[in-house]
């Protein structure tokens, strides 16, 4: 007996999705590519060999899968672009004097540090930097350089 993907989703894909190695959760109603392939494989395994699935239905499902896959690749590419653009923008700050929030809170509020950006590093895909003030690197109480992100900048110049 032939089953469509929609009927598998609505009536009994729980075993197919339970065996899926995808990261989807019970609260997530979207299908990812692994879920789609699991459902398609299940559908092909359960179809009647004397009454195979309609070719147009197969092509439509393949087109859906291709669309989902293309969307995922586009998302990945856009994320990479955003990260690269952020690093490129941050590179324009090299040599600039900036004020940043230091992350430590004092009785009068959040403290700030001022210094010159000497270089940009990428940590976990995000640009970060250390500051120098009068030629000396800005460090914490243990003597370690403090790393800031561009989100910490409160003023440029001065």
Q: Which parts are unreliable, with pLDDT below 50 for 5 consecutive residues or more? A: 7-27
Number of domains: 2
Mean pLDDT: 76
Strand content: 25-35%
Form type: rod-shaped
Helix content: 40-55%
Q: What is the CA-based Rg, rounded?
A: 27 Å
Can you summarize the main beta sheet?
6 strands, antiparallel
Distance between the termini: 75 Å
How many separate helices?
Answer: 4
H-E order: HHHHEEEEEE
Compute the number of strand runs: 6
If you had to describe this structure to a student in words, what would you say it looks like?
By secondary structure, this protein is α+β, with helices and mostly antiparallel strands. Helix 3 runs antiparallel to helix 4. Helix content is 41%, strand content 26%. It has helices at residues 5-12, 14-19, 33-46, 55-91; strands at residues 97-106, 109-123, 126-133, 136-137, 148-149, 153-156. It has 2 domains: 5-89, no CATH class; 97-156.
């Amino acid at each position: 007996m032939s089953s469509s993907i929609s009927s598998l989703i609505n009536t009994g894909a729980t075993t197919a999705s339970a065996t899926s190695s995808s990261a989807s959760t019970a609260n997530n109603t979207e299908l990812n590519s692994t879920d789609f392939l699991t459902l398609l494989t299940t559908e092909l395994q359960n179809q009647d060999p004397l009454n195979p699935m309609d070719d147009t239905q197969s092509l439509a499902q393949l087109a859906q899968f291709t669309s989902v896959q293309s969307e995922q690749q586009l998302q990945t590419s856009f994320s990479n672009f955003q990260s690269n653009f952020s690093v490129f923008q941050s590179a324009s700050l090299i040599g600039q004097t900036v004020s940043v929030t230091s992350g430590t809170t004092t009785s009068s509020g959040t403290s700030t540090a001022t210094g010159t950006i000497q270089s940009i590093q990428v940590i976990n895909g995000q640009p970060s930097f250390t500051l120098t003030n009068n030629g000396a690197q800005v460090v914490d109480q243990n003597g370690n350089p403090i790393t800031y992100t561009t989100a910490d900048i409160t003023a440029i110049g001065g």
